[in-house]
From TrEMBL:
InterPro entries: T6SS_TssF (IPR010272). PANTHER family: CYTOPLASMIC PROTEIN-RELATED-RELATED (PTHR35370), TYPE VI SECRETION SYSTEM COMPONENT TSSF1 (PTHR35370:SF1). This is Type VI secretion system baseplate subunit TssF. The gene is vasA.
Length: 608
């Protein structure tokens, strides 16, 4: 029962009593039979009837004001299911290598983890978002220093203002780097958001060159181009949440950015094999030459600013819900994921519905809102649909209800059959109750992997976030689907349109995220051209749109504006029409200096 019903009931009851009083004044004889007066209802049975009608009318009014969620939820559920689904808790986790590890340990994306100790409502389960390569390597030292620069001579870094120096060492002295098949290493930027954001911006806007060396005085360092540093988290297979291929991935990037921006604070350092091929001992030094320096960062950067073996994790896991016995007495059924832990499990999505008869026949029902209606119907002729509603009293979150209908949406429940549902679930708000710090919570793999000594959380789990779907929220979500990159980059109203769409995805809705969105000061766009290689070495010209987004200066540096710009670069690129591109530039408001201009992008691919 939702708390929203009570105000409607009170208003309807007051309205009916007022009408009853007017009726008694106009028709006293008839009202006397019902023992009605202008001020009271003397007959308790009539009073109960009035209350019953008030209750029924309140439900109708509530449904009308609810903006028909069955329609909007079904539409969004087919096109963009993430818009109406909760955002489960997520965090950054680190896999630590065993001291005797002598080779790489690979953990694929989707590796399942669970808490070693249980809360009152059970353990929490997670799965990884990125594949992780755990190496027998540790970060021995890290520093950011300005001029005079102490680094190997590098003709490609003339004019460097600072250098980021990372010292890597194998876990045991008898293990050398040239024995490892190492070509790429993934780093996570840990620390406060201000420090991590500023360092991320510095790396991707100011890197001149990179050198792999044995030390400062190495006469033959291996020098590589700046593009050896590569961003992480933007590709279709690097999402926190499962995402259908038919849906626009740009919206997923926005959802994940506002839910957990740390998901993007990774970078890959490639081309390490060039150094290993020349021979290497148990230590390698990495020098990243930068065109500018930040004195505040120089005092802050240390080994604690970087971490190896990390990946985002999300509180999602597959399971089978409690079976549902189908009868003629109900047209919809509450889906109960786990009868033993009603407070510990909530449904994220329905993957499959299987109907089983008493004779042992099994058929898979298709979702009603799908593109599968051209398939031959199963022997029951039933399709399924679900509705998400606020959870029962005493529970946080939502419950889902299953309905079975025919192809014309008439109720079609096969009697005495049983429905089994394969679902994707999460642990409601339990992850927020996990202790964080001093080595807790302890995590373990559901299927252990040799070579892993410990699994530790680097960041505390985020709270479970849920869309605000009340009142006009659903229709706002539907209406924004009409937007395209032209409306978002309109010089006059583009900034307002962009801020509005970002607010829809800001489920945290706190002071920091609101300030970041409001820091978008303006958007300008113009037609542009860029070279588009045809794959055969001959370049042609392609038309597109040059976009300039200006931020308030306070949002740049440690404010997260650059990271939002990196997300918008992919977002606008995915909006580009066929045979066109977008090229994003970000700058501080009122300044001519460009902070970053990304390469022209058409869809998922940059034009090189």
């Amino acid at each position: 029962m939702t708390d929203d019903l009570l105000p409607y009931f009170n208003r309807e009851l007051q309205h009916i009593r007022r009408l009853a009083g007017e009726f008694a004044e106009s028709y006293p004889k008839e009202a006397g039979r019902l023992r009605l007066s202008a001020d009271a209802v003397a007959d308790p049975h009539v009073e109960r009837l009035i209350q019953a009608f008030a209750y029924l009318s309140a439900r109708v009014r509530l449904k009308v004001d609810d903006e028909f969620p069955e329609l909007t939820d079904s539409l969004l559920g087919v096109l963009y299911p993430h818009l109406i689904a909760p955002m489960p808790a997520s965090a950054i986790v680190q896999f630590r290598a065993a001291d005797d590890l002598a080779k790489q340990v690979h953990l694929p994306a989707g590796t399942e983890l669970e808490t070693a100790e249980s809360l009152r409502d059970g353990e929490c389960r997670f799965r990884t978002a990125y594949p992780v390569d755990v190496w027998p390597i540790r970060i021995e030292a890290a520093s950011l220093t300005g001029r005079p620069i102490s680094a190997p001579a590098n003709p490609r870094a003339v004019g460097a203002a600072s250098v980021l120096r990372l010292t890597l060492r194998t876990l045991t002295p008898d293990l050398s780097f040239d024995k490892l098949d190492l070509s790429r290493l993934r780093f996570f930027l840990r620390g406060t958001p201000q420090v991590a954001n500023a360092l991320y911006e510095l790396l991707f806007t100011s890197t001149l060159s990179i050198a792999f060396a044995d030390g400062v005085n190495d006469p033959n360092p291996v020098i590589v181009e700046p593009d050896a540093i590569r961003p992480v988290g933007f590709e279709p297979d690097e999402g926190l949440l499962p995402y259908p291929k038919r849906s626009f991935i740009g919206y997923r990037l926005l959802s994940e950015f506002f839910a957990m921006p740390e998901k993007f604070l990774f970078f890959d350092l490639a081309r390490l094999e060039r150094k290993l091929l020349l021979g290497a001992g148990d230590k390698i030094e990495i020098f990243i030459y930068l065109s500018r320096g930040l004195s505040d960062l120089e005092r802050t950067i240390s080994t604690d600013s970087f971490a190896l073996g990390c990946t985002p994790i999300v509180n999602l896991f597959p399971m089978r819900a409690e079976p549902i016995r189908l009868t003629e007495r109900h047209f919809e059924y509450r889906i109960e994921p786990d009868a033993r832990r009603p407070r510990g499990v909530e449904i994220f999505s329905i993957d499959k519905v299987t109907l089983a008869s008493q004779m042992g026949d099994e058929v898979e029902a298709e979702p009603f809102y799908s593109i599968q209606h051209n398939r031959p119907q199963n022997q029951t002729g039933s399709y399924w649909h679900v509705t998400r509603r606020p959870a029962a009293e005493g529970l946080n979150g939502t419950d889902m209800f299953l309905g079975l209908v025919s192809g014309t949406f008439d109720v079609n429940v096969p009697m005495d059959w049983t429905a089994s549902l394969d679902i994707l679930a999460f642990n409601r708000d339990l992850p927020a109750q996990l202790p964080f710090g001093t080595g807790r919570p302890r995590l373990q793999q559901t299927k252990g992997t040799p070579g892993i000594a410990a699994i530790a959380l680097v960041t505390a789990p985020t709270p479970t976030l849920r869309p605000k779907l009340g009142k006009l929220g659903r229709w706002r979500l539907v209406s924004h689907l009409l937007l395209n990159h032209l409306s978002l980059t309109d010089t006059v109203e583009g900034a307002d349109a962009l801020r509005e769409i970002l607010k829809l995805y800001d489920l945290r809705d706190n002071r920091e995220t609101a300030a970041l969105i409001d820091a978008i000061a303006g958007i300008r766009s113009a037609r542009g051209t860029a070279r588009a290689p045809d794959g055969g070495g001959v370049a042609a010209f392609c038309r597109g749109v040059d976009i300039r987004v200006e931020f308030a200066e306070t949002a740049l540096g440690g404010g997260g504006g650059f990271l939002l710009g990196a997300v918008l670069d992919r977002f606008f690129g995915l909006y580009a029409s066929i045979n066109a591109f977008t090229r994003l530039t970000i700058a501080a408001r009122g300044q001519d200096r460009i902070l970053k201009q990304w390469p022209p992008r058409a869809g998922l691919k940059p034009l090189l």
